Amino acid sequence: MTPIDKDYLALFNDFPDGLFRIDLAGKYILVNELYAEIFGYTPEEMLAKDFDIWKTWAIEDEIRLLLSEAKKRDIKGIVVRSKSRIDTMGYIELSIGVSRDDNDVITGYEGRARDITLRYEAMNSEVEARRNAEFLVDLMAHDLTNIHHGMQMPLEFILGDSDFPEKYRKPLELSVAQLHYATDLIKNVKRLQRVLGGGNNLSTKNLYKELMDAAATAQRAYPAKVLDFELMFKSDEHWVLADNLLVDLFFNLFHNALKHDREATVRIKVEAKQNADDNLIDIHIIDYGPGVPDVEKKRILQRRMGAKGSGIGLTIVNYLLDKYDGSIRVVDRVPGELQMGSDFIVTLRRGM
After folding, report:
1. pLDDT digits (tens, 9 = 90+) for 241-290
2. DSSP secondary-structure letter at 229?
3. Helix, strand, coil percent content, the chain, rounded in steps of 5
């Protein structure tokens, strides 16, 4: 072996991926040490006459299709099942193309491989664990909601009886209020589950439609109150970059306004204003309720799970804003007049 051959062999074996070359029949012509290690063999064993890819690549139909496609184009990063010396199954990430002779005739295939068994199994375990957790949350939410409704209906029926003793009315009203709170909590947990499990595929959304849908949903959540909702721009005037969960962001802000306003009619006005950055838009959600104390204004800006006093609703808002690369701040509707209501300013990226 010449010095050049030795240097080439050293580079070949030191390459960070497994390298291989096979002929058209699937027999190995060349492999480096790392490639052989993936399957538990030595290079010499894999280059023996009776050794071929069917001893290392597990699913024959899948491999035949892969080799056929590789004749048309180079294939990069495809995951295929692998088989080790002791018949344990794994996964390799494979990149493969054809090799040609001096006359441009295909003589075989060459490529590189990486053992991703541990990473792939960990990913599958994570997906399975998420599915199981989501199933248990769905099951718990369904059963608890049914239990709450079963308790709530007879209690509200009793409260509607004019002959019911007044001294027992207040404790019963508190019990019904806690059932409403528990039901809202379950709904918010479900919304948070959707937020945390969603992808990051953003698209252009009609701001007017999203706000109207959120307002209608919030009104249904509080049938005993009237939502006086006003949008101060046209239906086709503003578009933002978000996903299908944007309605949940606005719903939670409207829900908070309905929840904390003591009036039977709750007024919310929404304005859209140009941000100093032309790529951003400021959405002012203005209410006329009791206002937000300064210490609570700071908590609203805390973007982490479990921020004290923020509640799941505002946790959802902040997770979604992080996802949309947006922000939120809250100021008094009338500067210095807390009791006159609040202005929640949501900043989002403009859609094209």
Report:
1. 998 889 989 998 998 899 889 899 999 999 999 999 999 999 999 999 99
2. E
3. 45, 30, 25
Which bin fits 336, alpha (ψ -120 to 50), beta or left (φ > 0)? left
Residue type at 231 in one-letter notation: L
- 200-352 maps to CATH 3.20.20.105: no
75 within 8 A of 49, measured Cβ to Cβ: no
- Whether the predicted pLDDT of 7 surpasses 60: no
CB 316, CB 248: distance < 8 Å: yes
Look at the domain 3-115 and name its fold: Beta-Lactamase (3.30.450)
- Find tokens 């002012």 and name the residue: 284
Rounded to two decimals, what is the model's pTM?
0.53
β partners of residue 349: 280
pLDDT tens digit sequence for 106-146? 999 999 999 999 888 888 887 787 777 777 777 777 777 77
d(CA 300, CA 252): 12
Q: What is the dihedral of CA 307, 309, 312, 318, to 10 degrees?
A: -50
Q: Is residue 96 within 8 Å of 70, Cβ to Cβ?
A: yes
pLDDT value of residue 71: 93
Other CB atoms within 10 A of residue 120 CB: 16
